[in-house]
Amino acid sequence: MLADHDVEDEPLTSYFADVTRECNAFRILLIGKSGSGKSTLVNEVFDFEYEGSATSDYSVGDHDINRPILSSTNRSLILHDSKGLESGSDKNLNIVKRFLNDRKNGPVADQLHAIWYCVEIPLGGERLFEGGDLALLEYLKSSSVPLIVVFTKLDKLQFSERMRLQKEYASKGQDSKAMRNAKEQYVAAAAKKYQSSCIDVLQSPNIPKAWSHYCAVSMKQPQTIITLIELTKSLLDSSETLDVLFSQAQMPDVNYKVNLSLRAGKNMYRMGMFASALPLKGIRKVSLLKVLSVIHSDIVQVWNLQDPDEILLGANMRTMIRRLFVEPLILPALDCVAAASDGNSAQIIANIAGACFNPATLIGPAVSNTVKILDDIADATPSAARVLMAYIIDLTLGMESLHWLVRHKDGKTASEKDVIEAFSHYHVSENRKEAHKKIRNFIGDENILLSIQRDKVLSKAGEIVGKCRIDPKKMFKGRQ
Ligand SMILES: Nc1nc2c(ncn2[C@@H]2O[C@H](COP(=O)(O)OP(=O)(O)O)[C@@H](O)[C@H]2O)c(=O)[nH]1
Ligand SMILES: [Mg+2]
């Protein structure tokens, strides 16, 4: 709560700014031999590309663990990279130990937030860990940093099992074409091998038990990457800051982003409904417009899309969201535009969205009207509740559409055209219509009390988003 004396100048603090005040990037250490798939993995999880190199060039001959690796493609991650420790490499072992020790204490921003210990799944009886690795694992037993052993290149093991089975079939005189339909078989055979050559070894008494979690990943199997993300997330539960930063930094786990997007909205909803409604001494009325702009930047930051032209936080973007999603709520007649013109409503909506990015047509009469209305609303009315709820839901689902659109592009950056396309797509979708119908049904004008029951409204918002999620397959149907 605001203290009386600094009320006048206290800006509206966003949930995101608040949670990330002490630390604004997730810091991770990757350990693993050269070629074990570390760079590939961070690219899959974080869209993290090293400057000037496609894969692993940065590491050639130089794994300086102390050097934080940053990337302009994802500013929410700080990476440290260390090669695996061969036997007898005491020097390297000591460097890693010193690094871990140096980062044990101190501010949370300097600490290490997770360690992924990468080991390539052996195909032909190679050793999982070298002697130096064992010494390091022994040392890591006393570390409190979440550690996950990540077995990499699962697809290669599956492929090699497939080949082995194919030969076996052939040697028995069976048609090797039968193998084409034998995916289940070779996946199961690979799982068995993974169990004996990785899990059993990891769990054997001679491997120091520094780890409590492990998983297998493949760059060709997105679900395995999500499993690693969920596992890492499950180890961060005690820190809201780290949970938020990791959710922001990782890219493929859309559910994780949607949940955080709603959580960010939830905290600001309280602001929107209460700071204005309660006659607390000294607290200024906060206009809904102001609250919406904070919700906007919080939700946009969660999605962490590459936005070189700074479109997503700009005034034009906020105008577009108001125009497409808020206006129809406060001035229902405007919703007819979309409803009446089914045939090419997508184009009409895209035109309206596009106009918001064109300064010459920026402020139409409807827009300035809404701005005024929003600026005047500083009360806990059902109408304010609907606007807040819709803003959170629409922006979350619109950003989800944009996320899918951008992920399918080379370079993965959001352009103005993408923004217009994604939000128009969402606007004319059944998802949006359904979401708005549910919002209106939920908060009717008589529901003044309901609208200030934050938890009810927000669990409802979560439920609505859950039912109206974007289906990327549908979204890209008909596109080449
Ligand atoms: N088949 C397959 N190859 C992979 C996988 N992960 C990495 N690789 C390949 O392994 C090689 C080394 O990967 P890299 O990420 O550079 O390893 P690093 O030296 O540990 O950073 C590259 O050619 C990658 O394409 C995977 O999951 N499956
Ligand atoms: Mg590398």
Query: Which geometry do the CA atoms define?
Result: globular
Label the structural class: alpha/beta
CATH superfamily placement of the largest domain: P-loop containing nucleotide triphosphate hydrolases
Give the strand content.
5-15%
InterPro entries: GTP-bd, P-loop_NTPase
Pfam families: MMR_HSR1
Organism: Hydnomerulius pinastri MD-312
Protein name: G domain-containing protein
Describe the structure.
By secondary structure, the chain is an alpha/beta fold. The chain folds into 2 domains: 15-249, 3-Layer(aba) Sandwich (Rossmann fold); 254-475, no CATH class. The protein is built from 20 helices and 6 strands. It has a 6-stranded mixed β-sheet with strand order 2-3-1-4-5-6. Strand 4 (114-120), helix 4 and strand 5 form a beta-alpha-beta unit. Helix 5 (154-171) crosses helix 6, helix 10 (288-303) runs parallel beside helix 15 (382-407) and helix 13 packs across helix 16. It starts with 14 loop residues before the first helix and ends in a 5-residue tail after the last helix. The structure holds guanosine-5'-diphosphate and magnesium ion (MG).
